[in-house]
Amino acid sequence: xxxxxxxxxxxxxxxxxxxxxxxxxxxxxxxxxxxxxxxxxxxxxxxxxxxxxxxxxxxxxxxxxxxxxxxxxxxxxxxxxxxxxxxxxxxxxxxxxxxxxxxxxxxxxxxxxxxxxxxxxxxxxxxxxxxxxxxxxxxxxxxxxxxxxxxxxxxxxxxxxxxxxxxxxxxxxxxxxxxxxxxxxxxxxxxxxxxxxxxxxxxxxxxxxxxxxxxxxxxxxxxxxxxxxxxxxxxxxxxxxxxxxxxxxxxxxxxxxxxxxxxxxxxxxxxxxxxxxxxxxxxxxxxxxxxxxxxxxxxxxxxxxx
Length: 306
Known about the structure:
Blueprint: H1 2-14, H2 18-62, H3 66-73, H4 76-106, H5 114-126, H6 129-139, H7 146-155, H8 166-194, H9 198-206, H10 212-239, H11 243-248, H12 260-270, H13 274-282, H14 285-305
């Protein structure tokens, strides 16, 4: 009797149509949602393939011949360009981040004039880059530029030709780059400072940690990960920066201030050697990949800490 009952239960479970009915109802209710999801998702997938995957694969294919890198590394212009890129990235990014960290502390003041001054400080970053760098280029003209005329009128000194010597021109590129992007990173550092609980500062004041001691023992340890992540991001952005050098110094004089981004454009379009231009840009990958890996590790560590 018990065996027969078990068989009946097994047959009933086998032919139970309720799960199928629930599945059918679920599919029916979500079919419209699935169609809308595909309608929004497919254009993004197509755009990503056409404008990210395809250019990346095509670029890897164009720069895949070993002979390109033999020609590239033997070119004296490329050797100077590699050094310029290293100086441009290390000096520009690190000096900018140190200044951004310091200025973020300045803008933490509660004076009435702090907010209007912050708005004025952000304006260089808010305005378009092209007219900004073109203005800086003409301002640094050695013959009739605004800066040289101002120095002559005030001091009577003949200022150097800023864009006619490599050291001056590369310095001008770095200063213009810092001036343009310093407000953005200052706001990021300011947001990081504002996220620190006030109770920690009050406890530090009780313990006698004020001024620089409070910065080194409270502020900087809590902002260290943010500072490192922003520095790594800044290096990645700066490695691909084309606008600043191209419109401020133009890579001159005599190609002495080219960086990898501008050299790639020069080889591809001016010298009509697109494969060599791609190889010049692709030569930065051995530096970019470790930066990306380190960046992802720091982001993951920050997420785990939270």
